[in-house]
Amino acid sequence: MKKTFRAMQVVSPGVLQRVERPIPHPAADEVLIKIEVCGVCGADLRDTEKVPQDGQGGRIPGHEIVGLISAKGAAVPEIWQTGQRVGVGRLGGYCQSCPPCRNGLFHLCQHQLTPGLSCDGGYAEYVVIRHTALIAIPSELSSVCAAPLLCAGTATFNALRHSGARAGDKVAVLGIGGLGHMAIQYAAKMGFEVIALARGSEKQRSALALGAHHYIDVLQQDVQQRLKTHGGVDLILATAADPEALSALLPALAPQGKAILLGSGPTPLKIMPGMMIGAERSLAGSFVSTPAQSERALIFSQRFQALPVTEEMPLERANEALARLRAGKARYRIVLTMNKDN
Q: CA-CA distance, 250 to 253, in Å (whole number)?
């Protein structure tokens, strides 16, 4: 086996540089993964803006990792074997001992690692990760399709699955990007009436092709009124960080309707308490799910062919991939690929 591996690390805010690093050895509770692919996520833009402190090495970004277990520590359970294909998402492994972990809330672990932020991520040929972060990949699902599902897929699947909405309910998806294009597919295949909301008429064809039943251009139409003509909506899934648009949408929620936030940003929401109280509407956030719940999302995606729309780029073009994402040109998920012969 080689002694070094290629990686793209942060050298200045938003800028990556190719480096060679020694292949690490996993600790007792870790595995070494030989990476096949790594998805490029919007959160990577924020992660790469944070440069290391003095004395720290450059961080390797990336948290939509798919690869093969190359080595494992002595304390890694037998369910994980060398040669097995696994995934790692935004969560880099829970501690198993903090209060949330002891209550089964593993995705809310107080000591959770974050690949690409608090530990090295997947813009590389190898990564070491806690075994508690590992996600089994269905054999029928390609690695390129699986990678974006580990973040964009599981985040939207989990939000819909735990929203309380039922088949036949009206679900509005705000934003048709990396998260939104998965949310539309999942919502349609779960039996909801799906209303896609986005900026510009040019996105209508894509939204309907993904499974949306209706499309509303938020730039040209009175969205609140349009939604009210549909009898209001039972659920709003806000996949885009657009507080102004979401604030305007909340009055279109049906009585006891719910809005779930998935896209984050620095601008606060503007909410009139009376509007929420009088109709018993609610607003909640939803985080990515546990490894076990992520596996459910992967199985659902494969079985019902709710798959990401991807474009592939080699590892060395990671800066270009981030630039395309920053400019809003990704359609809809970029996946970095590693050489297959090393």
A: 6
